[in-house]
Model the fold of this input.
Amino acid sequence: TRRSSDLVLGVFGLVWPLKSLLKIEEVCIDNIVFRLHYKVTVIILLACSTLITCRQYFGDPIDCIVDGIPSRIMDTYCWIQSTYTIPSWTHRKMPHPGVSYFKEGVDDVKHHNYYQWVCFALFFQAVFFYVPRYLWKLWEAGRMKALVIDLNCSIAFDSEHKESLINYFVNNLHMQNFYAIKFFICEILNLCNVICQMYFMNVFLEGEFKTYGYEVLKMTEQNPEDRKDIMSQVFPKVTKCTFNNYGPSGTIQKFDGMCILPLNILNEKIYVFLWFWFWIITIISVLNFVYRINVLLIPHFRLFLLRSKADHYSYDNLKTLAQKFWIGDWFVFYQFAKHTQH
Done:
C-alpha cells in the first residue's frame, strides 16, 4: 500500500546517513573514546530504533482480546490509551505476572505506555550522542586536515612541506590553547551526556532501568521455578486494558480485556544490552577524564605520550618541545604525530 511504501522510504531515509558513520576517516581529529560515543553508540541506537520502528509499524505490536468489542478497535484504543498491570500480583505464581482480577479501591495499577515512544526515544538519544562530535567538527574547522594533507601519499615528505609545518608551529606558538580546550569541553560533554541519558532512561522506564541489567544477570543464576522475572516486570508481555463504552441507555459499560505485547520481547532484550553498553562507555569515559586531567597537570605525562607517538625523535628534543609547548601547542603536535612517522 501507499502508506507502507511511505513508511519504508521514511525508515531508509533515517538509516541512510549511517553510511557516513561507517566510513574510515582519512584524518583523525579525535580519539577512540570519542568514536565510541558518536560512531558505535549512535549506530547501535539508530539500529535499535529502526528495528523497533519496523516491528511496530509493519508487524502486530499489540493484540487485545475482549468480548463484545471488535479486536481492531480494542487494539487501537489500548495502544493509544496504554495498558496496565497490577503490581501486587506481579510476584505471585501466575500464568501471567501482574494480570488478575482488579479490585477497585484496593489494588493499585501500573500503566504502561512507554512502548509507543521507544523508537522515538532511541532516535533522539542517538542525536544527542552525536552533538559533541558536531560541535567539535564545527570548532575544529579542518585544521588538522590542512596540516597533514599529502602526508599519507606516496610522494616523499619534502623539505618545503616540512618548512611550512615548522612555520605554522612557530607562528602559532602559545596561541592554540583555545583549540585544545574546545576538544576537552567536547570530551566532558560526552561524559555528561551518557550520564544524563542513563538518568533519562531510568525516568522513561519509571525507575526500573538503574538496576535492570544487574537484576537480569542475577536472575539467570536463580532457580527457574523460584526466580522473579524482572524482564516481565519491566516489559510485561501480557497486560490488561479497560474499554469504556456507552450502552443503549447512555450508561457506561466497562469491558475488561487482556492484551498481548509481542513488541516487549524485543524491548526487553534491547534495554538489557543498552544497560551494559551504557555502563561500559560511562566507565571508559570516566577513565578518559582522569587521563585528560593527568595530561593537563603533569608535563612528564605529556612527554611520555609524545615519545609513544614520535619515538624516532631524541629524548632531549622531545623534552625541549614538552617544556616550550603550552597545552594547546602540545595537543596540536600530538594530534599531528598520529598521522606521520616522519
User: Anything to note?
Assistant: The chain is about 60% helix and 10% strand.
